[in-house]
Amino acid sequence: VKIQSLRGMPDLFPEDLEKWHIFELKLLEIFNSFNTNEIRTPLVEFTELFARSVGNSSDIVNKELYSFLDRNEESICLRPEGSASVIRAVIQKKQEQDKHKLWYQGPMFRYERPQKGRYRQFHQIGVEYLGFEEGTSEYELIAMVLQIHQSLGIQDYTIKINHLGDAQAKEKFCTSLVSFLEPQIEELHEKDQARLKSNPLRVLDSKEKSTQELLKNAPKFQDFISEKSKRFLKDLVNAFKDQCNIQIDQSLVRGLDYYTGIVFEIVSTELGAQDAFLGGGRYDNLSNQLGGKDMHAIGFAIGVERIIELLNVKHTSQPLKVGFIIAGEQIDKKTYKIANDLRSANKSIILDTFLSEGSLKSHLRRANKNNCNFVIIIGDDELKNNQAIWKDLCEDGDQELLSFKELIDKYTNL
Ligand code: AMP
User: Fold this and answer.
1) Is residue 314 a contact partner of residue 334, using CB atoms and an 8 Å limit?
2) Residue 382 host element (H or E)
3) pLDDT digits (tens, 9 = 90+) for 244-265
4) SS (H, E, C) 331-354
5) Shortest-distance Cα residue to atom 7 of ligand 1
6) Could you tell me the CA-to-CA distances from 163 to 34, 159, 332, 398 in Å, in that order?
7) Which residues pair with 31 in a beta bridge?
8) CA 296 to CA 137: how far, in whole Å?
9) Which helix H or strand E contains 229, and what residues bound it?
10) Contact between 126 and 82 (Cβ < 8 Å)
């Protein structure tokens, strides 16, 4: 029997990755222009890291963690998200007092039920701004998010945004929500009854009609947060509402425990059921929760598989491609030297060597199929005379016999 990949862990082939590469280049450009630099943390961490940050009551830690005991009987896991690791790394390096503008990328792992747009291994690119209090950094990150959309040609999207107040406001609201819902718990959907016990704020996220009906009369977050926070949220929305579709959404709490202050999520109607492709917010308490000193933190993460679906850009210029056909019977080290010299002479050209044996005709067919603009043919006679055939593959293209030196010159100046 053939061995299969794990469920929800897709392979990515070159044709799948074409768009990923465009996406990565564009994002790198934007991160550079914001002076935001890359950090790489391990894929595996102690399970405790996520229990203490993302939260024991969250779905991610409760049911979705890829955790197991290592040979030393320690509970470790594949990371389900990036923020906790980044904060852990900065605390470990004792740099909580500095300012950091960081980005990261890579695979994340969650044991979810796979479906379109939802995988067990998926990828995120995220940004973390550390050491900046509530204020300009919120504006800066929303501005960055707009740049990303513009650069990727994404037009159909909505930014949902909310303010969760500080930790006390969150706590008070939570208590009040529980006292409101508890007497009517029977009317809540079964799933939400469980949430009310483990993580009451998540009830607000519920997609169940019966729950949403009940919530209409429930206490509202806005009544628990300070005037200052409300003002901040309003000003932030007003600053961007001419440039994008940005809406306050009071039911937006986001799944993870660690958020306080501004939270946001971006959705697109082009995505179907899993419509969120970017999520973020502020988590000023996370450093303390992980045993670090006080450190402001705000960030966001993009679901790469989902944003790739929305991508509306192409490579602007395709590099030239030249096929390299060795038509001789013998393997000769001279031919390989030529291929290497050509590559050193002009790196902007793709030199596609045809490595298997075959007739000249079949090689030419292959070169056409691979979209080569030109081919170089070296047979036994050419090799003897230090020459090569240069052939233009466009319609009515001609061919010429060149010395190796002329060939390098032509290739250099193509
Ligand atoms: P979160 O860390 O849950 O806020 O997720 C941030 C983004 O990652 C989401 O908006 C999704 O685009 C993406 N994402 C989360 N979980 C998955 C998954 N299982 N498969 C694919 N993308 C995901």
Assistant:
1) no
2) helix 380-384
3) 999 999 888 766 667 889 999 9
4) CCHHHHHHHHHHHHHCCCCEEEEC
5) 303
6) 25, 13, 69, 67
7) none
8) 10
9) helix 227-240
10) yes
What is the model's pLDDT at position 206?
Answer: 80
> For residue 60, is pLDDT > 80?
no
For ligand 1, mutation pick of 7, 118, 205, 275 (most atoms within 8 Å of CB):
118
Angle of CA points 302, 303, 306, to nearest 5°: 125
Q: What is the mean pLDDT of residues 56-84?
A: 89
355 DSSP 8-state letter: -
**Per-residue DSSP letters for 131-154?**
S--TTHHHHHHHHHHHHHHHHHT-
pLDDT tens by residue, 143-164: 999 999 999 999 999 999 999 8
Q: How far is the CA of 8 from the centre of ligand 1 (A)?
A: 13
Residue 395's pLDDT is: 85
Check whether 289 has a pLDDT greater than 80.
yes
The chain-wide mean pLDDT, for the chain, equals: 91
Q: Which two tokens stand for residue 158?
A: 């909505």
The burial of 255, by beta-carbon neighbours within 10 Å (0-12 exposed, 13-18 middle, 19 or more buried), is given as: middle
For the cut 80, the answer to whether the pLDDT of residue 380 exceeds it is yes
Ligand 1, atom 8: closest residue by C-alpha: 303
Closest residue by Cα to residue 139 from 32, 298, 248: 298
